[in-house]
Design a protein that fits this description.
The complex is a heterodimer of chains A (330) and B (218).
Chain A lengths: L1 E2 L14 E10 L7 E9 L3 E5 L6 H8 L7 E6 L7 H7 E4 L11 H11 L4 H14 L15 H12 L6 E5 L7 H18 L2 E5 L3 H7 L2 E6 L2 E6 L1 H8 L3 E9 L1 H9 L4 E6 L6 E6 L7 H10 L3 E9 L3 H8 L5
Parallel strand pairs in A: 4-8, 4-9, 6-7, 7-8
Antiparallel strand pairs in A: 2-3, 2-5, 9-10, 11-13, 11-14, 12-13
Helix pairs in contact in A: 3-4, 5-6, 8-11
Chain B lengths: L2 E2 L11 H15 L2 H25 L5 H33 L3 H5 L5 H31 L5 H28 L2 H9 L7 H4 L24
Classes of the chains: A alpha/beta (330), B mainly alpha (218).
Chain lengths: 330, 218
């Protein structure tokens, strides 16, 4: 669902343009700082993962960016609006706060209509918008049931639908898949991808589930003890972590020549026989991102007497990358 | 994907307090909570009226004093219900995790406060309406029906509004969401809230911070 209506400022936000900029964002609760001088930008249409260990400051960052908490120092801008223009920012953003829900006594449809009305939609438009959003999050069947009868997954989807009202320029989702079963998680992740792709919204997802980050996020911000310790794509973070990766190679012909060819490459740190009976060779690479893979494949294809039959790359696990970058912090 | 061609609102809803009040009133009365409280009030009034009437018939209590006793009970019960409802309007919603989405809506804190106050004060109005038959029974004898009703309405309304504002203020000032409620109210002009509204946070200059993207995985 996409409404063809543009906020004055949002209309100027094209794909690739920064819609949110945080600069030296700081929040003090005591020592250590809850958020310590965090700076980053988010572009339109981008899905950014905000990850970190428990109590790293993810939710505090989200609450400051959504105007629920004033920064102690530094600041941010959403489409040019600063934190002193909270009302304007709230019109530009959609938020799914962690564990939030709707009034138990009202229906899912009424909840969406209410929030659409608060945003200034007419009664008729609010009804149409609610129906479209309920369809988008697959809640049409339960639309007129009271929220008290909703499952956790249904409540999460209703909350995400609420965050999509008004085609916000920036969507903040705080642990949107918390407590969901695999099917529910997949559905929510699909909704997130659609929101970014169809609406051109920037999406910031705070989560501690790294497989989700790998699946949906264009870029990752790793926060630890209130500080931004790493920022980049998943592949960039793998490369930065310095963790090794592995490849499994199937060759016909001269296997010894294949081993010699691979060991001649600087990125290859070792070659061992693969699992018994597999006929594979396990190749250890010195970087986690797979930058050396093209050179490895090219060398094997060009090696005399060697026919490359299969190649599987196993990058460094994001969990290992995360632990390496955060120093294994809990 | 459905495409809707809706006219985008130029601004957030005007008079959003009416929307907030409507939702709060529905939650209070449709859920049955208000009706239950009203029933409890009616039982209490019945007991007080019966006892007062019995005492008056035994000449142990002056008829006017019986009316005054009932008025006091009506005002106390009504205001107590308002107090509980107003306090629950923020802290209760916060505990039930339904407050934050409303605070994140582009609506002024004043509209939210007024909407919640209206819903809380509706309990006083209901209590007053329930009390009318009881006042009529007791005040008809000494002939002070109008005086009793006017006194109950004016005194009760003033106390109910004051207590509701105070309860809402105390409820809103507690906890993390409370700071969100109170700390950003440059538009807040509701008198009790305005006094505690903190200064707006500092404006920050922006710094572009671009990094590359990668293709999305399925």
């Amino acid at each position: 669902m996409a409404t063809e209506i543009a906020e004055p400022a949002a209309a100027g936000a094209t794909q690739g343009q920064n819609v949110l900029e945080a600069r030296k964002l700081t929040r003090v609760y005591g020592e250590p700082l809850a958020v310590d001088s965090v700076s980053f930008g988010v572009r339109a249409g981008e899905v950014v993962g905000l990850v970190g260990p428990n109590a790293a400051g993810k939710t505090t960052i989200m609450r400051m960016l959504t105007t629920m908490l004033a920064p102690s120092a530094g600041g941010f801008r959403v489409l040019g609006y600063g934190p002193d223009q909270a009302g304007a920012i709230r019109r530009m953003i959609g938020v799914f706060p962690e564990n939030s829900t709707a009034l138990e006594s009202q229906t899912g449809r009424a909840e969406l209509q209410y929030h659409a009305r608060l945003r200034g939609y007419s009664k008729l438009d609010a009804e149409r918008l609610a129906a479209a959003l309920l369809s988008e999050v697959n809640l049409e069947v339960a639309a007129d049931r009271r929220v008290r009868g909703y499952s956790r997954g249904m409540r999460q989807r209703l909350g995400i639908a609420r965050a999509l009202i008004g085609d916000p320029a920036v969507i903040f989702l705080d642990e949107p898949t918390l407590g969901l079963d695999p099917a529910g998680r997949r559905h929510v992740l699909d909704i997130i991808l659609q929101a970014a792709a169809n609406r051109g919204s920037a999406v910031i997802v705070s989560t501690h589930l790294l497989d989700e980050v790998e699946r949906v996020c264009d870029r990752v911000l790793i926060v630890d003890r209130g500080q931004l310790v790493a920022e980049g794509t998943v592949d960039e973070l793998r490369a930065r972590s310095g963790l090794p990766s592995r490849a499994y190679v199937q060759v016909d012909g001269d296997a010894e020549q294949a081993v010699r060819t691979m060991l001649s490459l600087s990125a290859v740190t070792g070659v061992e026989p693969g699992p018994a009976g597999s006929g594979e060779l396990r190749v250890d690479l010195d970087d986690g991102s797979g930058d050396a893979v093209p050179a490895l494949v090219t060398a094997l294809i060009g090696a005399d007497g060697v026919q490359l039959r299969g190649f599987t790359f196993e990058p460094a696990g994001l969990e290992d990358v995360f632990l390496a970058l955060t120093g294994g912090a809990e | 994907m459905t495409t809707l061609e809706l006219s985008r609102p130029e601004a957030p809803a005007r008079g959003a307090w009416r929307l907030v009040a409507g939702r709060e009133l529905r939650d209070l009365w449709v859920s049955g909570r208000g009706l239950t409280l009203g029933l409890v009030a009616a039982v209490l009034f019945s007991a007080v009226t019966y006892l007062s009437a019995s005492e008056a018939s035994l000449n142990l209590l002056d008829a006017q004093e019986a009316v005054h006793l009932l008025i006091q009970v009506v005002v106390i019960i009504g205001c107590l219900l308002v107090l509980v409802s107003a306090a629950d309007a923020v802290s209760g919603e916060r505990e039930r995790r339904t407050l934050e989405p409303v605070l994140l809506a582009p609506v002024s804190r004043r509209d939210l406060a007024i909407g919640k106050l209206v819903a809380a004060i509706s309990l006083w109005m209901a209590t007053f309406l329930i009390s009318i038959p009881y006042v009529l029974v007791l005040a008809d004898g000494p002939g002070i029906v109008a005086e009793a009703l006017w006194t109950t309405a004016i005194v009760g309304t003033l106390i109910a509004v004051g207590l509701a504002g105070l309860a809402l203020l105390i409820s809103a000032s507690r906890g993390a969401t409370g700071s969100a409620w109170l700390g950003r109210s440059s538009s807040c002009s509701c008198s009790p809230l305005r006094a505690v509204c903190r200064a707006s946070p500092r404006t920050a200059s922006a710094r572009p911070c671009c990094t590359s993207t990668r293709s999305r995985r399925g």
